[in-house]
Amino acid sequence: MEISNGSLLFDPAECERKEVRNASLLESFTALWKQNDGEILRFASRYGVLELDEANAFYPAEDRKTRDALVGKGEFPATGCEPLARWRSYSRQFAALLAIGAKLHQGESGDPEEWKVLMPPDGLPGVRSVNRQKHYVELFIWESVLHSNLRPALRWSGDRATEPGIVFGFLDTGGLFGALMFRLMLAITKVDGLAICGSCQRSFTPAARARRGNIRFCEGCRKNGSAHRISQRISASRRKALKRR
Hints:
Number of domains: 2
Radius of gyration: 21 Å
């Protein structure tokens, strides 16, 4: 991997996806737009590339094509050349969304200078109210998610071999861009992650982290008593299992 003529150059076939678990990933990425080329190279060497596809206007490459290439069934859609200008553009847009989101949480409108990063000046008069700005933040996030490969997937191997779980494309389906998108949404919504309710099986945002192996329940199932009933059945099953030993 190297930088040449304002672009990040790499061999797609040799550029393995990294396991992204660094808590400062998003913070580091949103600072890249004002840093030198060497910092972008260091970031990409540590966390991987954005997998931008030149044929797709340098949006992330289509997931199916990338997956086929990873298993030897096709060619990589990525060209192995990602303009640093696009890296800085994504970095600046993510930084603007975080800054605007912070203001909106305080009941204030986002800074016009931040909005200029996301839309042309002639569109700014239409997004002055707080509620209107919240809607536009939704639209920008939705658009970015559509261009990403962020999607839920089942993981039941490796470190999940004994405990299957739902992941959101950090490794096999999403890549770095998907990981950044997911963390951006978590940051704006001010939650640590998503969970699947052990009763209704719907996704929800937990109020606090739980130890691995603990079953999580949404607020609705806690209130209607189904969470308590399931917890009692699980406890009874565990006690029986201990008696058999």
